[in-house]
Amino acid sequence: MKFHQLLFIITTTAAIAAPRTLDQTIVKSDPEPTLTQPTLEQDRLELAKIPGGIETVDAERYLTGRASTFAETFFLSPGVVAQPRFGSDEARISIRGSGLQRTFHGRGIRLMQDGIPLNLADGGFDMQAVDPLAASHINIWRGGNALSNGSTTLGGAIDYLSHTGYSAPGYSSRIEAGSYEYLRARFAGGITEGSSDLYFSLSHASQNGFRDHAEQSAQRFFTNYGIRLRDDLETRFFLTAIHTDSDLPGSLTKAEMEANPQQADGSFFGAKRYDNRRDYELFRFANKTTLRNGNNTWDFTAGYTYKDLDHPITPFVGVIDQLSNDLAFGTVFTNTDELGGRDNRFRSGLSFTYGNMTNSVFLNNLGARGALRNRDDQTATNLEGFIENRHHLSDEISFTAALAAAFSTRENDREFSNIPPAPGTLTTYDDSFANIAPSLGLLHEKDGIHWFAGISRSFEPPSFSETVTANIARDAQTANTIEAGTRGTRSFAKWDATVYYSQVKDELLTLTDPGTLVSTTKNANDTIHYGIELGTELDLLGTSWIDENATHRLIFRTAYTYGSFEFDGDPTYGDNDIAGLPPHLVRGELLWENAEGYYAGPTFEWVPVKSFIDHRNTFAADPYALLGFKFGRRVSEGISWFVEAKNLTDETHAATHGVIDNAGGADQRQFLPGEGRSIFAGLEWTF
């Protein structure tokens, strides 16, 4: 164990065990709203006015068990497919088929923290850049419903909202531990004084991993400081520092997975022999300033991100060394004056992002860095603007119209190379992309039940990882989407249901060569995405959700995501399924809960049909079903705890898999096994 890890554990343990030496009184109430940081309830009310697929995730939902991977954070989020690669932060995440073939380094979704993008300027993002333990809540806008956040991608946007000194006053310590030497510890605190507040979260996570060569370690520090300069003016500063090291066990064949899912890829060119890893450091400094004048609000944002990546992978690709510097600036104006005697909200915004990356690739000499193969200087810029107006046509019906426009550039300059490029590879280029993305939506609200319908357009230029490949992706991906649905609460039932249909043009599809494991990207012709996003929450004891004094509840929560992603008359693939994601994903839990904060019950995950690993649809991952159980107690102040068992039947399964062109009906090294039977426990003290 490294010294800084040991120091962190000792410090956190001491904080939990130390007696109070000074009397103090902390009065906790509903979080006091700040100008810069919306509360959970404010965001729930605001997102509910959107005529499309949305969700606000309360952190309390996933803190009842292990809170480590994207799959756990979004376990009950309909429409969000998050599949862990090997029990790590790194995952495949997709909304409505965005980046569905990517098992690493997300794309197709705008990932934000506190309303400021975490994506690099070229569109890619890292899952390790966020920490669910430091979030108050998470906002999700699926598809075109994210246009007012400046996101024009097919998948939409996800925003992690940090706690403040107001929303989390006092201090808390949390420790999670369990199988595979898993440990996750956090110490956090919120302080208010006068017109200012401070929140910080320091966390450590480590594990040996379910599989061989899957050891991980990460330290994250998040803090924000806000000060009310006057009643109508507030500024808040955000600081993030992350250090993360991850061994990569690589993919297995299905036969290898079934024989021993815990092994790493031990083939001659495999992950273990060439010591595949993904290590990086990230520093981020950001600011949000809010000015209000009556019904007018101006939000100004700025952010700077530095990232240093060290990434040895296959001998064919080499050791990737990336140094990136990204800047982001934005402003949003909001006016809520009535129009024609009825409620109206007008918003407009403008943002600019700039990123420069030095991308160096070295020979991989069995995990050691060898001679420099090539070096590229890469620059990406994005100028994005939007206008949106939501007008109430009556007390029950509102109409929302939005228009986003974007101009993006991607410039690559090969500064050094001692090897010839792959056939078809363009090593120096300067491309630009421009498009508009309109959106129209209608929402009917009555007696707590919403009905909505909308139409939108999306636009996404390729990232650098997709423009310098053997199959060159030179065009931006676009799509036209229609959706309709309902959400609401009636007696003992809550629901959120959306259906959507997207016609996609020039979809960015990345394939992996089964021999060299080199990824290549191309623009597909026409493709079609359609599906269902259904979330339900039922009290099987029949108690109404408006009854705040219920002593006991038996709650059945489930998230069902159906997605059909198909080629449409493709000259190569015809009308085949696009490989990558299972068509059906069902996750849920049945928990007994009482007024004292205790809970207990089973959890489950079910993939009832196979998932193809190749676009020719010749070989697939098998269906699977997982059963778990958790119990514990969750309270707002004092001691909270949980015990959670996962995969009780110890089922061997592929949590996710790679994507290739043609498996030829034969087994391929594309499978990433999920964790086996395991148990975890957690203790949290809020004081």
Summarize the structure in words.
It is globular and about 65 Å long. It is built from 6 helices and 35 strands. The chain has one domain (about 5-20, about 30-685): Maltoporin, Chain A, CATH 2.40.170. The model is unreliable at about 1-30 (pLDDT under 50). Strand 10 (about 195-205) and strand 11 form a beta hairpin. The strands form 6 sheets. It has a 22-stranded antiparallel β-barrel. The chain is mainly beta and about 675 residues long.
In short:
The chain is mainly beta. The protein is 6% helix and 54% strand.
* Unreliable segments of 5+ consecutive residues: 1-31
Number of helical segments with 4 or more residues: 6
The biggest sheet amounts to: 22 strands, antiparallel, barrel
How much strand? Answer: over 45%
Gross CATH architecture: Beta Barrel
Show the helix and strand layout.
Layout: H1 3-17, H2 40-47, E1 54-58, H3 59-62, H4 70-73, E2 80-84, E3 91-95, E4 110-113, E5 116-117, E6 135-142, E7 156-162, E8 170-178, E9 182-193, E10 196-207, E11 216-230, E12 233-246, H5 254-259, E13 279-293, E14 296-312, E15 319-335, E16 344-365, E17 368-392, E18 397-417, E19 429-446, E20 449-460, H6 464-467, E21 477-490, E22 493-505, E23 508-512, E24 519-523, E25 526-539, E26 552-567, E27 584-594, E28 598-607, E29 611-612, E30 620-621, E31 624-633, E32 638-646, E33 654-657, E34 671-673, E35 678-686
Parallel strand pairs: 4-7
Antiparallel strand pairs: 1-6, 2-3, 4-5, 6-7, 8-9, 8-35, 9-10, 10-11, 11-12, 12-13, 13-14, 14-15, 15-16, 16-17, 17-18, 18-19, 19-20, 20-21, 21-22, 22-25, 23-24, 25-26, 26-27, 27-28, 28-31, 29-30, 31-32, 32-35, 33-34
